Amino acid sequence: MSASVTTAPAAAGTALWERDAVLAVDHLTMRFGGLVAVNDLSFRAGRGDITALIGPNGAGKTTVFNCITGFYKPTEGMMTLRQEEGATYLLERLPGHSVNWKARVARTFQNIRLFTGMTVLENLLVAQHNKLMIASGFSVLGLLGIGPYRADEARAIEKAKYWLDKIGLTDRADDPAGDLPYGDQRRLEIARAMCTDPILLCLDEPAAGLNPRESNELNRLLLDIRRDQGTSLLLIEHDMSVVMEISDHVVVLDYGTKIADGTPGEIRDDPKVIAAYLGVEDDEVEKVEAEVGV
Ligand SMILES: Nc1ncnc2c1ncn2[C@@H]1O[C@H](COP(=O)(O)OP(=O)(O)OP(=O)(O)O)[C@@H](O)[C@H]1O
After folding, report:
1. ipTM of this complex > 0.95?
2. pLDDT tens digits, residue range 182-194?
3. Which atom from ligand 1 is nearest to the alpha carbon of 72?
4. List of domains in the chain
5. SS3 55
């Protein structure tokens, strides 16, 4: 067992909300030279919840994602991923590639990163490459169908077809991914991440650039993923209609520091959040409160 994995049950006396957290972020700090992009951030993402991470431009949201998903090693702090069956991973200690296939955390990017020259179907199969290579035993015999490779390959194709159907792109399976309209590419990227069977799916601005119809389709897809797969979602989003409609829990960052953490309703009425979005100074918060009537 690696140093980053424990299977110990939650300590007696641990608060219920903590036992039910799929992800616990504790005292996360990320510095780039003299710049503190994330400052002593702690929050929980509930199992089966949709948790939104919001904040003005440059607040540190993508940096938090990059730490959780293994792209950055944080300067300080712990990020604990608890799988339902009891395995616990300290994400900051895992090599970047293990965060996806071992801890089962998947992500999408602010700028879509599909393989645009590959077909839609191929994009969903490539996502399952790791599993297939393991099934092949990393040998030619495996690839020729001796051992579990063939059955796993059939399962990979079935899974890809399932997600094609879910995102309504079965008819476009053989088209290059780069030929799809923007909204379809966004949904394909989510489907590709789901092909890795994540426990936690991190979405960086999934609604960016979508029109209202596409944004509604996205909301439906994310709610379906939560309901049908039981996947927990963590999303960065600027589109407040998406945040308010589908999130269970919202964490607000400003200049790398958490300024609020609560339900969408609580966040909407929080004067500190209103002030951060309006860009006012701390000593003007009371004035803003009076103006917005909270
Ligand atoms: N690799 C890096 N090197 C140096 N500074 C960085 C790096 N990545 C991010 N930053 C800085 O850290 C701060 C937080 O950036 P980050 O991209 O995390 O914010 P954000 O909340 O995601 O912003 P946006 O909503 O505009 O995407 C910014 O000041 C940014 O310039």
Report:
1. yes
2. 999 999 999 999 9
3. 1
4. 1-104+199-294 (3.40.50.300), 112-196 (3.40.50.300)
5. coil
